[in-house]
Amino acid sequence: MPPIPKAELHLHIEGTLEPELAFALAARNSVELPYLSEAELRAAYSFSDLQSFLDLYYALMAVLRTEDDFADLADAYLARARAQGVRHAEIFFDPQAHTARGLEIGTVIEGLTRALDAAEERHGISTRLIMCFLRDESAESALATFEAARPYLDRIAAVGLDSAEVGNPPSKFREVYARAREAGLKCVAHAGEEGPPAYIWEALDLLGVDRVDHGVRCMEDDALVARLAAERTPLTLCPLSNVRLRVIDKLADHPLPAMLDAGLLVTVNSDDPAYFGGYADDNFTGVRDALGLDDETLRTLARNSFHASFLDEETRAKYL
Ligand code: ADE
Ligand code: ZN
């Protein structure tokens, strides 16, 4: 059976950097990697929590230097995504992780949009770009990043919030989210991955997010679940990521079935697939097998992904 058509709504483009491409870009840009081989790099993909992953994720970005690098990275992801049934992808990028290394924000955005603009024709995938702020950087840095991106806002659909969650609550980023909304952008934020349910409340009430990324920890707060269900706020779950970053012990423990039972609008996504052992359909088949989901439930998850997307009403309707 071909993979079920789906939208991917939680995907960090830097998290699609496979070891093969990392070594190819390192050679192209004369960047020395502290690993002798792809196998040795892959062997380092054993994480104890979010921070232990982020340390490697940021370090490996050193190989991304030019517009071509970002275009090649995105094109490689889109080819893999299509093979996994992805028809629409809303893609995160972390500009501050690149500008901190001396790159221009325009290099990153021009490179990514070159690949995204060609995606419909080359891969049959429609795309949106979501610019994330690093929550472990300052609110001022997020504001400066937003202003640096102003000339490119026509290419950006939404802003997001990622990186080390605990100790960096959504409330820190109220001002930049207000500015983004004023500029007509949608808003999403990682919340309730490692952080407490209170961070999800803040993302809703203080940032006015249209979707919550992860949000798994909402299940610890009945009033929050009721609110998310009543407002049909989408949650972009990433099951394989949750296991690899030890949010849960094993896929069979994932609260996805309980979340569906609670009436939550959940979607299944891949987060950082090069690091977590699977792309979009690998996450679908992973939860199917571990949780015994039937075909109707898988169709619901796929339908939810389009429903929760930022596609216009008419295009979305084609998939529902
Ligand atoms: N950046 C890349 N992947 C992330 C994740 N799962 N959580 C927070 N920040 C991230
Ligand atoms: Zn993420």
From TrEMBL:
Its cofactor is Zn(2+). Keywords: Hydrolase, Metal-binding, Nucleotide metabolism, Zinc. This is Adenine deaminase. Catalyzes the hydrolytic deamination of adenine to hypoxanthine. Plays an important role in the purine salvage pathway and in nitrogen catabolism. Residues 5-320 form the Adenosine deaminase domain. Zn(2+) binds at residues 10, 12, 190, 271. Substrate binds at residue 272. The active site is at 193 (proton donor). Gene3D superfamilies: Metal-dependent hydrolases (3.20.20.140). It catalyses: adenine + H2O + H(+) = hypoxanthine + NH4(+). Binds 1 zinc ion per subunit. The record marks 214 as: Important for catalytic activity. The keyword Metal-binding applies. Its EC number is 3.5.4.2. It comes from Streptomyces varsoviensis. It comes from the Bacteria. Belongs to the metallo-dependent hydrolases superfamily. Adenosine and AMP deaminases family. Adenine deaminase type 2 subfamily. It is an enzyme of class 3 (hydrolase).
